[in-house]
Amino acid sequence: MATDFRADEALVVIDVQKDFCPGGALAVTDGDAVVEIINALSPRFAHVVATQDWHPAGHLSFASSHPGKAPFETIEADYGLQTLWSDHCVKGSDGAAFHPGLDLNPVELIVRKGFRPEIDSYSAFFENDRKTTTGLAGALRERGFRRLYFVGLATDFCVAYSAIDAAREGFEAVVLLDACRGIDLGGSLDAAIAEMKAAGVSVVNGA
Q1: Residue 128: what are its φ and ψ, rounded to 5°?
Q2: 15, 32, 53, 120: which is the annotated catalytic residue?
């Protein structure tokens, strides 16, 4: 099958999981709207990878792990400020599964992140301590990829962190906004878009 994108370009699908979609434990508004768009987009790429949030029960980032704290409050973790979330994407749970409508057939690599109990992980490339790697950059670099296109959930957290890290790791990074949805926590969406652009990420609508 002919593809629109070069062999050194890859689509990176970020965290399109049930808990981040309507009805999930940490639902992103309209999050399931990305599924149809990604399904139409992924066959145009010769290479597609995906990430999956995969937390142990009692994870540091869960508000329930900190008595008296509520979701969206923050704590000072060993590695810096950490937003607290409702329990979500607990490994092996139904909520951690990919959205059932997402076509996984084009996906050739799945990277699980956030499985270390004491470190959260937004980025596909680094845990939130900004030192512990997922190994994805090395895998993509070894295979000769040059440009990465990012889609998924949520624009202002895991997508943005992933795209910025990709640019810092020497990849050309592109975020396809129409295939993403954001949380927009206190203006975080506009801030993330500005930060991505400042880091050299191309932020576009459509591919």
Answers
A1: -70, -5
A2: 15
